[in-house]
Specification:
The protein has one helix spanning 2-20; strands at residues 25-26, 31-33, 40-45, 48-51, 55-62, 73-80, 83-90, 93-94, 99-100, 105-111, 117-118, 135-137, 146-149, 161-167, 170-176, 182-184, 201-205, 210-219, 222-230, 240-241, 251-252, 258-260, 263-269, 272-275, 280-283, 286-288, 294-296, 331-338, 347-354, 359-363, 368-372, 375-376, 381-399, 420-425, 443-459. It has 1 helix and 35 strands. It is elongated and about 75 Å long. Strands 2, 3, 4, 30, 31, 33, 34 and 35 form an 8-stranded antiparallel sheet that branches. It has 460 residues and is mostly beta strands. The longest helix is centred in the first third of the chain and has 19 residues, at 2-20. 4% of the residues lie in helices and 43% in strands.
């Protein structure tokens, strides 16, 4: 029986590979999200790609110190071991006098749970006669100082933390051994082509094995995003404009791009779209697999109607960073600003996504299905991140290149998946044979009813 099964599959694989006519997408054992149409060949019935909004939670940070104020901006959040770090601009605008109330500084906060944040007295820089403050940088670049922890395995200890910030003539490069005490890496800007009055950021990209950065530029009078790469953080390639397929031309104020922690080959960005007529901003979502061409969603992920005080001038920026907080294995935390300009201070509110929950394949009561492009994989089981409503289900069929079900992996052979799980194994009658299909082109026919499917992974 096993022999006939394997022979039959081998024949279907040969004809299937010819019928595909395209190079299959190699999934390996990576987690794959549905943030774009990368895997999608067709959608049928009422199945569609559905953009999700994060759920608003509590205010976690109020910028109420005398060196902070109502125009604090360009927040960066990242995890560093058991500690969470935040960096941001301290600034205040006097709406009566219509000018800045004090000089800009770069501030620092930290947390052990991502919800309760403290502003340590660093004793580094004087403000109004005292060093009892959380000012972490007060030199060139304090307008938009944007640090990260370097994940480059070859990074020396004295440069474990790096940052970009705008100075005269372009972006300056900084390094630090502890994330608190900072030094310039070069006296002159390392990137000079662009317009840098935004949150210009960089990170080590593990998928490409180099540093990448994304900064502000103006293209045809519209705020847009440029990118460079570097081997050493000092010498950068010529900036290139990002591409967005057929997305409309819009002002993109900040970009908030980073590798997704669970699938670092996918870059997620949360650019804040600027609306000139109202001076409002609203975070959106975009994704890329090469760092240059992005799929942009046009709907906001945090609308100006979300709580609270988000509909004013520049009052709704997404911070840079995605955190997974202690004891929250099923959710991701992000942060967005509110009450910009309007009061004595501004605030940062936490928002949560389901793990992988940025976009789902969704089908309602009528049901629908998604057929993937041809793929290859490694591994011995298929895991799904999904949720169903009452009476809902997800089933998966494996097909050859002619669209014919593979024996043992048909829809009828699949045990319906119901409920809510971050990583549940798909069961077929021939599930124990799934590893024999590894490396061979197949399609997935995903049939849903009253269900959301967020991600898939062929697991070793």
């Amino acid at each position: 029986m096993r022999y006939r099964y394997l022979v039959g599959f081998a024949l279907s694989w040969i004809t299937g590979a010819i019928a595909f006519g395209v190079e299959p997408i190699d999934l390996g054992a990576r987690l794959e999200l549905f943030v774009d149409g990368h895997l999608v060949d067709s959608l049928q019935g009422d199945a569609k790609l559905h953009l999700h909004e994060p759920e608003p939670k509590e205010v976690v940070l109020v910028t109420d110190a005398s060196w902070e104020g109502n125009t604090c901006a360009y927040f960066t959040f990242f995890q560093d071991g058991d500690l969470y770090r935040a960096y941001y601009r301290g600034a205040h605008y006097d709406t009566t006098k219509r000018r800045s109330a004090h000089r800009e500084v770069t501030c620092y906060a930290e947390s052990t749970d991502g919800i309760h944040w403290t502003k340590p007295q660093l004793g580094l820089f004087e403000f109004q006669g005292s060093k009892a403050n959380n000012i972490v940088w007060d030199g060139d670049g304090r307008h938009n100082f944007t640090p990260f922890k370097d994940a480059n395995p070859a990074c020396p200890p004295e440069a474990r933390y790096k940052a970009l910030a705008s100075g005269k003539g372009g972006l300056l490069a900084f390094q630090s051994a502890d994330g608190i005490h900072w030094l310039l890496m070069a006296e002159t800007p390392v990137i000079t082509k662009g317009a840098f009055d935004s949150q210009n950021l960089a990170f080590w990209d593990p998928a490409r094995g180099c540093y990448v950065e994304f900064h502000r530029g103006f293209r045809d009078g519209v705020r847009d995003i440029m990118t460079c790469t570097s081997e050493d953080f000092l010498h950068w390639t010529e900036p290139e404009w990002l591409g967005y397929h057929d997305a409309p031309k819009e002002h993109l104020y900040t970009n908030a791009i980073l590798p997704y922690m669970r699938a670092p080959h996918i870059l997620l960005g949360f650019p804040s779209r600027f609306l000139p007529k109202t001076q409002q901003v609203e975070p959106t979502l975009m994704s890329s697999r090469d760092g240059r061409t992005f799929h942009r969603w046009t709907e906001p992920v945090i609308p100006v109607t979300a709580p609270k005080d988000r509909d004013g001038n520049r009052s709704n920026y997404m911070a840079w960073g995605i955190l997974q907080l202690p004891g929250a294995d099923r959710e991701l935390s992000m942060y967005a600003s509110e009450a910009y300009y309007t009061g004595p201070d501004s605030r940062m509110r936490r928002f949560t996504y389901r793990v992988d929950g940025f976009v789902s394949v969704r089908a309602g009561a009528e049901g629908g299905e998604l057929i993937t492009k041809p793929v290859t994989f490694s591994g011995k089981e298929l895991l799904l991140n999904f949720a169903t409503a009452e009476g809902g289900s997800v089933r998966i069929e494996l097909q050859n290149g002619e669209g014919k079900p593979i024996d043992g992996f048909t829809l009828a052979d699949c045990e319906p998946l119901e409920g809510d799980a971050i990583g549940r194994t798909v069961q077929w009658k021939a599930a124990s044979e799934l590893g024999s299909l590894a490396g061979r082109p197949v399609r997935l026919r995903i049939v849903l009813k009253h269900a959301d499917l967020y991600s898939i992974q062929f697991n070793e």
